[in-house]
Design goal:
- Strands 3-2-1-4-5-7-6 form a seven-stranded mixed sheet, with helices on both faces.
- It has one domain: Rossmann fold (3-Layer(aba) Sandwich).
- It contains seven helices and seven strands, in the order H-H-H-E-H-E-E-H-E-H-E-H-E-E.
């Protein structure tokens, strides 16, 4: 049996004792990430009854669960991930690689030409351990998500995306400012302090 490294032991210990992990289990959410979206939504009111949105990088589905509940039967949630995702009531899901043109076209056909109120993106690449490579891969996904938001959001729509501080951050923020009237930073309590992840919120698509 493989010996766990100190860092993975520390992660496991932190995970087992994590308030949000226990809360997610109790509340029926598939991951602690649900509380990041709930907290941001509490502040910014992005999802309400009737909201039509896309959830990019949706597996295991906790953001889709939150979104479907908040958008209600008058809204619509379209989700996409390279990984499989157990069905979520009220969510239309496609499994596929967002970087592939065919998958993107299939997802666009699912939207049926409906302009979106919101695009949310909690995507991250498979981490290789090489910080330079991982950062570049992460921002490549972010740029694809921004491009999708630019093409499918209605005027005045919003875009919430996970990014990692470091190389590429300033450039990506500048790209978002070209598309949205305001770009704000969110670091919800459920996001671990030691993590360099933050969320950029683009409001009011031009």
């Amino acid at each position: 049996m493989a010996v766990r490294s100190k860092s993975s032991k520390a992660w496991l210990n932190e995970h087992v004792n994590d308030h949000y992990v226990h809360k997610a289990q109790k509340d029926g959410y598939r991951a602690r990430a649900a509380y990041k979206l709930l907290e941001i939504n509490e502040k910014d009111k992005l999802i309400k009854q009737g909201t039509v949105l896309a959830d990019l990088g949706s597996a295991p589905g906790s953001w889709s669960q939150v979104a479907a509940k908040l958008a209600g039967s008058d809204g619509a949630v379209f989700a996409l991930d390279i990984l499989p995702m157990e069905p979520v009531e009220g969510v239309s899901f496609i499994q596929g690689d967002f970087r592939e043109e065919g998958v993107l076209q299939e997802f666009e056909s699912l939207l049926g030409g409906r302009p979106l109120d919101l695009v949310i993106c909690d995507m991250a690449p498979n981490m290789s351990g090489n910080s330079v490579t991982d950062q570049a891969r992460s921002y490549y996904l972010c740029e694809l998500a921004l491009d999708f938001a630019r093409n499918h959001l209605k005027t005045g729509g919003c875009f919430l995306v996970k990014v990692f501080q470091g190389a590429g951050y300033q450039e990506f923020t500048a790209q978002m400012r070209e598309v949205f009237q305001s770009v704000q930073v969110r670091k919800p309590d459920a996001s671990r302090n030691r993590s360099s992840e933050i969320y950029l919120l683009g409001k009011n698509k031009r």
